[in-house]
Structures are given as C-alpha cells and as structure tokens.
What we know:
Shape: globular
Strand content: under 5%
Mean pLDDT: 80
Helix content: over 70%
Number of helices: 9
CATH topology of the largest domain: Arc Repressor Mutant, subunit A
CATH architecture of the largest domain: Orthogonal Bundle
Low-confidence stretches: 101-109, 185-194
Radius of gyration: 18 Å
Distance between the termini: 23 Å
Largest sheet: none
Structural class: mainly alpha
Number of strands: 0
CATH class of the largest domain: Mainly Alpha
Amino acid sequence: xxxxxxxxxxxxxxxxxxxxxxxxxxxxxxxxxxxxxxxxxxxxxxxxxxxxxxxxxxxxxxxxxxxxxxxxxxxxxxxxxxxxxxxxxxxxxxxxxxxxxxxxxxxxxxxxxxxxxxxxxxxxxxxxxxxxxxxxxxxxxxxxxxxxxxxxxxxxxxxxxxxxxxxxxxxxxxxxxxxxxxxxxxxxxxxxxxx
Length: 195
C-alpha cells in the first residue's frame, strides 16, 4: 500500500469507517505479529501485544502525524507495550510455535528431510535470538526480517545509527556463534536460517 492510500484509509478510519480500519489492520497485522513473535518468542504474548497495539492506534488515529510513517508509529506503540509486559514478567518461548509461524507448507514433493532441517534451523535461530540482548535481538529482527533500513531502526529505537550498526554487527556475530555451537555438525549455517 502506498502512503497516499494509507493516508486515505487512516483519515477514513479516524472518522469511524470500519472498513478503512480493517484495511489498516490487514495491511500491518502479519508483519507486526511476526516482529512481536520474534521479539517475545511466545505466540500468546505476540498476539496480545498486537491486539493491544491496534486498539491503541485505532483509538488515537486523530493524533497521528502524517509527516512520519504509520508503520513506525504502530511498531513503536507495540514495542512499548512489549517492554511494559517484559517489566511485569520475563517471557518464555515456545520454539515449536515460532518455527511453525510463516513456515513453508509441506509440499507433496518436498523431502521430509528438508522439512525437518528447516524446522531445526528455525528452532536454532529462535533459541539463538532469545539469547541475544533485547537491543541486539530487536535490531536484528527489524533489519533482517522486516527489511528496515538502519536510519529507520535508529529513529524507531531512538539511538544513533552507529549504535544500531554496532548492535547489528554484534548480534549477527553472537547468533553465528550460538548457532554454530548448537549445530554439532548438522551442516546448518546462518545464511540458511531465515528470519
């Protein structure tokens, strides 16, 4: 969706148009859920935060400043909700559920071994992500999974671009070390483990 269409939907939703609000949710829901799932490692936490973020955004659409990207505003609200939830209790993670989210569907001609390797890689990646600092994990997920540029991540996290680059570099290095130490000869490398 381009920014002009998004702006039109936001303005209509702010006036109470339910279809416009649904369009906004449909457009951003999957990427926000994937982001929160990678951050929390728990589908239940991710789902709760996404729902609460949309409730807050939709009730405050009149406050949105069109000079900024809507997705940045939405992700910032979700991030704050997540950090508040973390302050209340330390989240656990369920690698089976994370691995299943947005995974490749089993195709009739796909070998079982390839599917199993993909599941193992995804689980190893999630375990490794959960062992990063929260800043490193967030930067890695935003950069690799959501394809956000460094400058946007820096604004979103309110930190200098150099710090974002440092977190990205150290996070990748730590991921590589954690995955390599876990693989025990399984032949998986970081490039194969998709976010």
